[in-house]
Specification:
With 133 residues, the chain is mainly alpha-helical. Helix content is 53%, strand content 10%. A two-stranded antiparallel ribbon has the order 1-2. The radius of gyration is 18 Å and the shape is globular.
């Protein structure tokens, strides 16, 4: 019995994360044809932050918060994102500017993702115009 293999273009885009010294930290993929991924990411993170801010006066359980952030990133990207990106650094690690690592990560990723989405949408629009004109 022979096995045939097909390779499909699913439209995945690769994002490489490098540290300030240029060392590769992680590589993840996302699908820019998922037009709602960036807005879902923003909404999910705002909801998470609101839940934790609503617990005024309570000392946050950092282990629980870290797990929530990891789960959230995995949910947004529909893959084990946190295993790769947060393997060597906690999402709650404090950055030079006082933000958590996950906040800096999202702020860096979302513009790249939104640009990819716009490019895919433009190509799709151009392709459809051939048939609609």
């Amino acid at each position: 019995m022979s096995v045939r293999e097909l390779q499909l273009d699913t439209g995945l885009e690769e994002i490489q994360f490098r540290d300030e010294l240029g060392r590769l930290l992680a590589t993840v993929w996302f699908n820019p044809t998922d037009m709602g991924i960036a807005s879902r990411a923003r909404a999910e993170m705002e909801a998470l932050e609101k839940r934790w801010k609503d617990k005024k006066g309570e000392e946050p359980d950092l282990a629980v918060l870290e797990q929530e952030v990891r789960t959230l990133f995995d949910k947004i990207f529909a893959c084990p994102f946190s295993e790769t990106v947060f393997e060597n650094i906690s999402p709650l690690a404090l950055m030079e500017d006082g933000r958590c690592f996950y906040e800096s990560l999202l702020d860096a990723m979302l513009p790249v993702m939104e640009q990819c989405i716009r490019e895919k949408a433009q190509k799709s629009h151009e392709h459809l115009q051939k048939y609609l004109s």
